[in-house]
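Exercise 7b. Backbone tokens:
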């Protein structure tokens, strides 16, 4: 059994995230999101410059359904906290949010709440 060490609960959310590092922008997909980070599903071998500790600017785009409910994109800075190569877990990057302003934190909280409310209705 593993011990959950996350500060905030994750929600399963398939959404697009734009990740920009060293002037290179990539549009990827999330598997889950929390107030402190997100998991991006991608083959890490295709991104050799993304190592643990690497930082990037991210823009999380709400799904069309959440956008219709007023959810807005969220901009932040994040660092690679872990890299999964596949196997037991999905391949991708665990990103920890390192810098986010108050407005974007409110947008992120609202996006998570709208998704959670929609999932329970």
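Sequence design result:
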């Amino acid at each position: 059994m593993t011990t959950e060490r996350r500060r905030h609960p994750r929600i399963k959310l398939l959404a697009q995230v734009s990740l920009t590092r060293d002037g290179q922008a990539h549009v990827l997909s999330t598997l889950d999101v929390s107030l402190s980070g997100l998991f991006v599903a991608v083959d890490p071998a295709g991104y050799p410059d993304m190592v643990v500790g690497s930082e990037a600017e991210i823009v999380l785009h709400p799904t069309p359904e959440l956008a219709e409910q007023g959810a807005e994109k969220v901009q932040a800075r994040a660092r690679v906290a872990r890299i999964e190569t596949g196997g037991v877990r999905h391949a991708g990057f665990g990103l920890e949010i390192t810098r986010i302003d108050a407005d974007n934190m409110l947008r992120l909280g609202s996006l998570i709440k709208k998704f959670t409310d929609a999932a329970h209705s």
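Instructor comment: The chain has one domain: 11-119. Residues 102-119 form the longest helix (18 residues).
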